[in-house]
Every structure is written in structure tokens, then in C-alpha cells.
Amino acid sequence: MHLRDLLPAVLLLLSVSCALLLGFFAFDSETAVALIKRAGYWVMLANFTWLVINLIKRASRVAEVRVRLGGWIGPLLFISAVSAVLFALQPTGYKIIMDEPVLSATALRMHEYKEVMTTARAHDLQGVFTQLDGYVDKRPYFYPFLVSLLHDFTGYRSSNTFLLNALLTPVFLGLLFICGRWAWPRYGGYCAVMLFATVPLLAMNVNGGGFELLNLVMILAAVVAAKSYVEAPSLRRVDTLILVGLLLAQTRYESVLYVLAVAAVGLVGWFKVRTLLISTVTIVAPLLLIPFALQQVIFSDYQGLWQLKDGAEKPFLLRLIPENLEHAATFFFNFTDDQQPNSLLLSVLFVAALVVTLVLGFSMDSKRQF
């Protein structure tokens, strides 16, 4: 391997090292607050703009967008109908007290001042609504960023936080339809959408002002980008995967873990083509995650912002996993409490599919051995 071929790998290692140093060790919490407040918006804007440009370049290639419109009229009508039903199932409004209004307040600050900050105090000064002091919130800010863009393009409206989720609904169902078609080309898309629509939580989030629906959209977008990349690894496709993964990492608290999955998929592509596909995006990507690391520095000094229950030490601990799994099982398989917004149909089918998958896996492994 020539030195020229090693240079991108060396730059990537330097980028990772710099990101870790600057994100976790170089700044105290006060400096981290100032950096997030002043620079966080622009880092997010750069990430989002880079992804939009990447998608436009990919769409401009006729070979990648050659789709028979006639074959998609039925699915589009179906997705529109399911979206309309979901909109009708719940009244539009905030569903989670404090969480969703805080996201809206952060979006307003990002719209007006381009600062990642949640306004805590504002006054009418000589007829002008003026936002004053506030705080850097614990919630990831990709969702407020998108709401702030709606404010930028349409003017400020408090309802824009609900409009964003309304716009994301057909996008989510469309991505779900695509993933379902991979499993069952003829009917898989319809089944996937209908099964997910049986979950009451979906209608609640479709008509709410939280980031849960955006998180689902970004997960499916990452899955679609990963499949596209693994099928035909290229620099442009790995750029799409990485940029989607970076935005996903800043959508929900735990979504940063998906960065590990994105990295694993990237390695699969490298092994497939037997070369290091390291682009400018790949090298810069670790630096775009510095704001996430700075948020962790802030909350390590201001534990009260996590609003933990009495007796809790930290928000994320390995010993909490068994308790959380128990809560999850109670939610998914609750047969008695009609107040739980779960789908027993989906839960039962999941268990059945898991059993069938394990049986088929063991049987195929046994055939290989003999």
C-alpha cells in the first residue's frame, strides 16, 4: 500500500483523536455551555446541509432514480390513507408535559438567535418580545433545529412543532413500506405499515410535538442508506450513510449508539471492495459529534438537569438494564391494562417471528454440518 493510500486513514485517526480530546477533555462545563450555545446550531446546519447536497447529487444520477411511477401510485395512495387515519386518531397537541414545550422553546431560540439554548425568561420590551436568559437543555437538538428551519421559511408559528411531525408521518410510512418490500416484495410494504399502525403510540407521536417520530424516520433512513451502501459500496453512498448516522445520533438520548452500527456497516463495505473508502465526510464526521460530547461534559457537572428520580445516581447504568427490560416486557405483553398504548398483535407476531427465525437458523446450520 502506498503512502498516499495511507494518508486518509491517518487523517481519520487524527480526526477521531481530536474529537475525543476536544469533546471530553479540553473544556470545562462553563466553556462547553458557551460552545454549544454559540456553535451548536452552525455545526448542525453544516451536517444537515451536507446531507441535502449529497442526496441532491445522488438523485441527479438518472440510474439511481429510475422508478416506474405507475408502480408507486397504489403505495402512495395507501400511505396517504394511513397517514390520514393516524391524524384523525388523536387530537393535535403536546403529549408529554415539559418535554415537548421545552423542545418548542429551544426551537424558538434557534430560530431567532441561532443559539442552542432553551429560553427560561422573556419580556415584552417596548412592544418587542425579547428572549433573555436560559440554559442548555439535556435533550438532543436535531428536532428543534428542524422546527427552527420551519420557522425560518414560514415565519414563527407555535404549531410548526406539530407540522413537522405531520410532514414526517408519510416519510416514515414510506421508508417503512420500502423496508417491508425487501422482506416480501409483493405485500411486505403494506403489511409493515398496517402492523405499525396498530401501535397507539404511533398516532400519539404523529399528532404530538416530540422527537420520537423523527427518531424512527432517522433509524429507517439509516437502514435504507446502509443497504444501498452494502449493495454497491462507494464514497458517495458511504457519505450518505455517515451523514444520516450523525443526525440520528443527535435525535434521541441513546441514539448515539447507532454510530457503532454505522461504523460496522462501513467496515463491511471496506471488506467487500477490499479498499478503504475514506472520504472527506468520513474524516470530518468525528468532529461533527463534538457537540454531543460537550453536552455530556455539561451534564456531568449539572446532574440536576437530568431530573432523575429519588435515589438515582446516573441516567445510564448497566445495572438498570434488567429493570428496564422488565418494564419493556410489561409494556409489550400487557393483557389486562387497557391504558397501555401497546399492540399485542405486533408483540405476539414478533415472538412468533423470532422463534421461526431461530428454528430456521439452527436447521440451516445443521444442514451445513452434514
Write the layout of secondary structure elements.
Layout: H1 3-25, H2 29-59, H3 70-89, H4 99-113, E1 118-119, E2 122-125, E3 128-131, E4 134-135, H5 142-154, H6 160-183, H7 188-197, H8 200-206, H9 212-231, H10 235-249, H11 258-273, H12 280-288, H13 290-301, H14 321-332, H15 344-369
Antiparallel strand pairs: 1-4, 2-3
Helix pairs in contact: 1-12, 1-13, 2-10, 2-13, 3-6, 3-7, 4-5, 6-7, 6-9, 9-10, 9-11, 10-11, 10-12
Provide structural commentary.
The protein has helices at about 5-25, 30-60, 70-90, 100-115, 140-155, 160-185, 190-195, 200-205, 210-230, 235-250, 260-275, 280-290, 290-300, 320-330, 345-370; strands spanning about 120, 120-125, 130, 135. It contains 15 helices and four strands. It has a two-stranded antiparallel sheet with strand order 1-4. A two-stranded antiparallel sheet has the order 2-3. The chain is globular. α2 (about 30-60) packs antiparallel against α13, α3 (about 70-90) crosses α6 (about 160-185) and α10 (about 235-250) packs antiparallel against α11. It has two domains: about 15-315, no CATH class; about 315-370, no CATH class. The chain is mainly alpha-helical.
